[in-house]
Amino acid sequence: VDKIGRGGKWQGKNVLISAGPTQEAIDPVRYISNHSSGKMGISIAEAFYLQGANVTVIAGPMALKPTFSGIHWIPVVSAKEMEEACLREFPESDWTIMAAAVADYRPAQVSSEKIKKKENTLEIGLEKTTDILATLGTQKRSHQKLIGFALETENEEVHALDKLNRKNLDAIVLNSLKDPGAGFGLDTNQVQVFQKSGERHAFSLKSKDVIAQELVDLFHSWK
Ligand code: CTP
Ligand code: CA
C-alpha cells in the first residue's frame, strides 16, 4: 500500500501517536506493566497514514507492528523513556494522540540484582510517574491539537470530562471496560469522544480499524 498511494486529506500534517503499555523495571528480570496490546494506537496511526499524514508512533513494548513501513516507529520501554520521546517529538507535531497505557507508578528503587525469594511477603515501594499528557497540555501551542484517552471502569463520563479539562485537551476518547466488546487484546472497541467544545460522539461496537478511520475523519471535520 506504501506504493499504491494514499489519500490526501492529511497531507502535510505531522501526527504523533503514543501506543501500547510501558514496562517499569523491578529488577533485571521483572517489571510492572498492563494489558494494553497497542492495537487501538496502531489502527489510528494507520488510518492517519492512509490519508497522507506524516505519522510517528512512540511505542511501548508490544508484539504488534504497523503494516506500513512509512510510519516512523520509535520503540520505548518505560514511562520515563516514553516521556522523553514525547517531549522531543511534540513541538513538531500538529496532532498528538496519546493512546498509550502509561504506568502511573514505577518502583521507587530498581534492584540491580535479581531479588531473591526470602520472606512470605514482599513489599515494593512505588513512586508516581510523570503525567505525559498533562505535561504536553501545558506546552501546547494554539495550532496544535491534543487528544487523550481515558480508560474507566466506573463513573466513566465524570472521570473522562475531568481528564479533558485538567489536561488541557481538545478531546478525550473514552474507553469503558464495562462495554461488551471493548477491552484489552480485542479487535473491536466501543468508544465515546468528548470534545472541548462540549460536542460528543458515540461510536457503536465495531472493529478498531473502523473506529480509527471514523475518529480520524471526525478530527478532520474540526479543521
Ligand atoms: N497518561 C499519560 N501519562 C501518564 C498516565 C496517563 O500521558 N503517566 C495519558 C494516557 O495516555 C491517556 C490519558 O493520560 O491518554 C488518561 O490515562 P488514564 O490512565 O485513563 O488516566 P490517568 O490520568 O492516568 O488517571 P487514572 O489512571 O487514575 O484514571
Ligand atoms: Ca492511569
From TrEMBL:
Keywords: Decarboxylase, Flavoprotein, FMN, Ligase, Lyase, Magnesium, Metal-binding, Multifunctional enzyme. The keyword Metal-binding applies. Its EC number is 4.1.1.36, 6.3.2.5. Residues 15-223 are annotated as: Phosphopantothenate--cysteine ligase. It catalyses: (R)-4'-phosphopantothenate + L-cysteine + CTP = N-[(R)-4-phosphopantothenoyl]-L-cysteine + CMP + diphosphate + H(+); N-[(R)-4-phosphopantothenoyl]-L-cysteine + H(+) = (R)-4'-phosphopantetheine + CO2. The keyword Iron-sulfur does not apply. In the N-terminal section; belongs to the HFCD (homo-oligomeric flavin containing Cys decarboxylase) superfamily. In the C-terminal section; belongs to the PPC synthetase family. Catalyzes two sequential steps in the biosynthesis of coenzyme A. In the first step cysteine is conjugated to 4'-phosphopantothenate to form 4-phosphopantothenoylcysteine. In the second step the latter compound is decarboxylated to form 4'-phosphopantotheine. Catalyzes two steps in the biosynthesis of coenzyme A. In the first step cysteine is conjugated to 4'-phosphopantothenate to form 4-phosphopantothenoylcysteine, in the latter compound is decarboxylated to form 4'-phosphopantotheine. This is Coenzyme A biosynthesis bifunctional protein CoaBC.
